[in-house]
Amino acid sequence: MNGILICGGLLIDRYLLVDQYPGRGGDGYILDSFDVVGGCTVNVARTVKNLGATPYMVSSVGNDPWGNEIMDFMKKEQFPANCVIQGEGSTGYCLVFLEPDGERTFLTFKGCEGIFSDALISEKAENCCRTAVVTGYYLLDPAAMKLIEKLKKFKEWGFQIIFDPSPLVDKIQADLLEEMMKISDVIIPNRSEAKVLAGNKELEQWAIACSERGTAMIIKNGSQGGILYKKGKKIPYDAVQVDAIDTTGAGDSFTGSIAYSLLSGIPLEKGVLLAASSASVVATIKGPHGNFSVSQLTEEAQRIWREYQNVR
User: Fold this and answer.
1) Sorted alphabetically, which keywords does the UniProt record give (predicted)?
2) Which of 21, 112, 199, 287 could be joined to 60 by an S-S link, Cβ 3.0–4.6 Å?
């Protein structure tokens, strides 16, 4: 089985390249602008595909020009569209304010991409996948419990579940968040998101306790690397230092690499190194994702990738 199910949302990223992001009530200049198909789902999927697995993106898109653009993109880039339905509602978009140092600020208009239905996940995808990724954005709809119930069935079938909480994790209903965390095999927050998940508990003690119960925790800390908590052990990893031009999608690429690692049987201790390398490459690409080859990864990441090529 070479497939990875990616539950998130497809939309249009509207890039605005600015000299600097102004403070409230301030002013600034737009240096350039462009549109690109985006959303966590395609950012994760692109890395999964670059590494050699098959991503099945799960999303609705609108029956409108942007929805048509997304469907054309799927066909042109040869992404499976089995779990993408074009129908009622409007396609969402995200304003991405990109500064010269690669920092970005988002403002998102929610469209139909955040609404889940069982009809989205095709029988072919169910049969081809045993790994699933869920982004926190997909849990912002109160009806997202339908997705969690579906994932519980997948878990019974032997699926491994990865949860990427995303920056709006504090907006997810508490009951949905609790249920999602219960069924996750790996959770990948940054430090800010992890603090939301931990609540009033001390962060490291909470992460260790989660890992002792069987949920691996990877807490990212940007250019400083991060820490994998697995089976009660604390395993730091380093980031790969690059001259970043756009950090949009780097975290999603990290998640895509971890999904690929689970699919391929790569231990998480090695998977975080592959993920850190993939994220660093994406940070050098203008846009939220892009084609890259394994040869662009660090030598260590390339060795890890080659070592497990015959496992799947």
Assistant:
1) Kinase, Transferase
2) 112
Residue 25 within a domain: no
Calpha distance 253→48 (Å, rounded): 8
> What CATH number has the domain bearing residue 101?
3.40.1190.20
Q: Is 88:75 a contact under the CB 8 Å cutoff?
A: no
Q: What range defines the domain where residue 100 resides? A: 3-20+31-307
Q: What are the residue ranges of helices labelled H in 77-128? A: 123-128
Write the DSSP assignment of 139-194 as a string of letters.
G-SGGGHHHHHHHHHHHHTT-EEEEE--GGGGGS-HHHHHHHHHH-SEE--BHHHH
Kindly state whether residue 26 falls inside one of the protein's structural domains. no
Please tell me whether the overall predicted TM-score, pTM, comes out greater than 0.85 for this model: yes
Beta strands in the chain (DSSP E): 3-7, 11-18, 30-38, 54-62, 84-87, 93-98, 104-109, 129-135, 160-164, 186-187, 216-220, 226-230, 233-237
